[in-house]
Inverse folding.
């Protein structure tokens, strides 16, 4: 018991600051996700397939940028400058959503918002790995994820109150929420600028020459690449949360209550991520990964069979548990496999894998939804998740983790 208290006391201040940054950032970002289906389909007059392509391509672009931002941060030997610029640019993307009268400007705003997300996320997660002791990494990522999910929860509730009390049309109320979303992003920028100091890490200096080296890729090893394969299969099933909002709207839930649907998901996200983050430091991480995959499978099944709104809410809650169990675990496992000098690069590779997977997932989900229906879309995602869950059982721990266990014994 005392050991756990001491470990918590040693958590670097940078981790707590980044948790607060994620809180404010996600409180703004959640309104984009919550209101995207309504805005694209009913305000701009498009379809679920277009929604899938926009979310899929923008998420893919975000993950692609995450690869290069990780590599560049390793090459520069600096993380903070990329994190700062990423959040600052995101603050200027929000008003573009409000000003959109057609798909052109909306897509441009979506791409800018996701590109800046990619610019900051990998250096941020690498910075956590840089400054956190090995025995606290799962807990550190759990804190960051909890801050993000709690911010999304509060942002969803705030969005509900704005929509419920604004007397204008639904289109005008959505535009107002988009404008207000810039405020917490600027708070996040101030926290980064004044609250974060980069640690000096051995093996992380400015590197000369081309930033990705063949020797770095070989050093990651076969176990890392099999883990990437499992992640890719799973990401081919992980659709955007916007489809949760669309499913609720399809079963006749009023627009003002849509943010509360995502609030429910983020509540279970926050509840699960902190617990799993701490536990995964003391147990085999792949057990928690398998648990999260099983929750995703169950969520897809429930959403496919949903006939009433409470069925959707149940499926959304399970989706939240899946997200909380997997997201921090994903990054902690990548950190386990990665040598110190290429942590940013390895996280970037993971994000590239997610890029291709989520592009496939969102495009597939949107097209199946438009051509057939929601039942078929969620059923296909459930099948893909089942394949990924089986593959998790064959993941082997990193050599670094095995060596650490021998030392402890």
């Amino acid at each position: 018991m005392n050991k756990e208290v001491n470990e918590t006391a040693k958590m670097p201040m940078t981790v707590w600051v980044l948790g607060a940054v994620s809180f404010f950032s996600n409180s703004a970002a959640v309104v984009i996700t919550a209101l995207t289906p309504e805005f694209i389909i009913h305000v701009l007059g498009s379809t679920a397939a277009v929604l899938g392509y926009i979310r899929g391509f923008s998420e893919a672009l975000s993950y692609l940028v995450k690869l290069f931002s990780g590599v560049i941060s390793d090459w520069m030997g600096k993380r903070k400058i990329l994190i700062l610029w990423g959040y600052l640019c995101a603050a200027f993307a929000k008003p573009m959503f409000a000003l959109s009268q057609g798909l052109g400007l909306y897509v441009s705003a979506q791409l800018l918002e996701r590109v800046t997300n990619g610019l900051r996320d990998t250096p941020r997660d690498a910075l956590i790995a840089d400054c956190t002791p090995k025995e606290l990494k799962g807990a550190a990522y759990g804190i960051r994820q909890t801050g993000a999910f709690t911010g999304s929860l509060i942002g969803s509730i705030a969005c509900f109150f704005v929509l419920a009390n604004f007397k204008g049309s639904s289109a005008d109320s959505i535009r107002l929420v988009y404008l207000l979303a810039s405020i917490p992003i600027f708070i996040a920028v101030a926290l980064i600028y004044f609250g974060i100091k980069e640690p000096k890490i051995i093996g992380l200096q400015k590197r000369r020459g081309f930033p990705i080296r063949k020797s770095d890729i070989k050093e990651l090893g076969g176990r890392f690449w099999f883990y990437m394969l499992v992640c890719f299969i799973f990401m081919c099933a992980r659709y955007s949360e916007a489809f949760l909002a669309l499913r609720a709207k399809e079963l006749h839930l009023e627009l003002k209550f849509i943010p509360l649907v995502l609030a429910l998901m983020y509540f279970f996200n926050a509840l699960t991520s902190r617990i799993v983050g701490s536990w995964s430091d003391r147990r085999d991480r792949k057990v928690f990964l398998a648990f999260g995959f099983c929750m995703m499978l169950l969520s897809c099944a429930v959403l496919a069979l949903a006939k009433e709104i409470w069925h959707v809410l149940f499926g959304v809650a399970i989706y939240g548990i899946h997200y909380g169990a997997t997201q921090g675990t994903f990054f902690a496992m990548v950190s386990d496999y990665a040598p110190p000098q290429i942590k940013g690069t390895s996280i970037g590779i993971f994000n590239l894998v997610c890029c291709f997977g989520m592009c496939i997932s969102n495009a597939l989900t949107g097209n199946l939804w438009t051509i057939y229906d929601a039942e078929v879309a969620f059923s296909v995602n459930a099948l893909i998740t089942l394949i990924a869950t089986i593959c998790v059982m064959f993941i082997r721990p990193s050599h670094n983790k095995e060596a650490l266990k021998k030392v402890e014994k």
